[in-house]
Amino acid sequence: TDIGSQKDRVVTEEEWLQKWETGNIGFHKDQGHPLLRKYLDVLLNGRSGLRIFFPLCGKAVEMKWLADMGHSVVGVEVSEQALKEFFAEHSLPYCEEPVPEISGAKKLQSISGNISLYCCSVYDLSSSIVGKFDGVWDRGALVAVNPRDRQRYVSLMITLMEKNSSYLLVTVSYDPNKHKGPPFYVPESEMKSLFG
């Protein structure tokens, strides 16, 4: 697989935090992602009351949308600012508590209890901390993790999935020699080898 010069590219946690601090968040969609609406049936598969995971969630508006449908939403994001903006922009009261298993991590949870957002690295999570999920909405996570960390990321995702879970994945297709990323180019062949 040729991902061009991207395979060695590294974006640090500090760089992501900087994007949030400076408002350089072109990846955020105020209206939600049209592909989630289009493929919602695939994610839900006729089921209600699901636990749905949002890796690298930012302040994705879809989290509130799915919670309002009666699902339980869990997200993870390194930027506390992004998580606080999510609750503020939706006028959702929340409480904050430390996550004893993860040094320095916080969980911000809606008072209604159906939205729990972890402020830490996705790699700090495990099923013993967050449980397992019926669905994953990966709108910008696989394309944001550093290419050298993809296998680690996907291995973690697989451990967080229930047996019948659905995984909706959005990627971008372009010539990786013309753009350094993120979002990074993930060819279909690599998706197949990563997820099996």
List the main descriptive attributes of the protein structure presented here.
single chain, 196 residues, alpha/beta, Rossmann fold, seven-stranded mixed sheet, 8 helices, 7 strands, globular
Helix content: 25-40%
Largest sheet: 7 strands, mixed
Could you say which overall geometry the principal axes of the C-alpha atoms support? globular
Report the C-alpha radius of gyration, rounded: 16 Å
**Percent in strands:** 15-25%
CATH architecture of the domain at 34-72 and 121-195: 3-Layer(aba) Sandwich
CATH topology type of the domain at 34-72 and 121-195: Rossmann fold
Low-confidence stretches: none
Supply the number of helical segments: 8
Strand order of the largest sheet: 3-4-5-2-1-6-7
CATH class category of the domain at 34-72 and 121-195: Alpha Beta
Query: CATH homologous superfamily of the domain at 34-72 and 121-195, by name?
Result: Vaccinia Virus protein VP39
Query: What is the total tally of β strands?
Result: 7
The ordered string of helix (H) and strand (E) elements is: HHHEHEHEEEHEHEH
Mean pLDDT: 94
By helix and strand content, what is the structural category?
alpha/beta
GO cellular component, one term: cytoplasm
Family: Belongs to the class I-like SAM-binding methyltransferase superfamily. TPMT family.
InterPro entries: SAM-dependent_MTases_sf, Thiopurine_S-MeTrfase, TPMT
Catalytic activity: S-adenosyl-L-methionine + a thiopurine = S-adenosyl-L-homocysteine + a thiopurine S-methylether
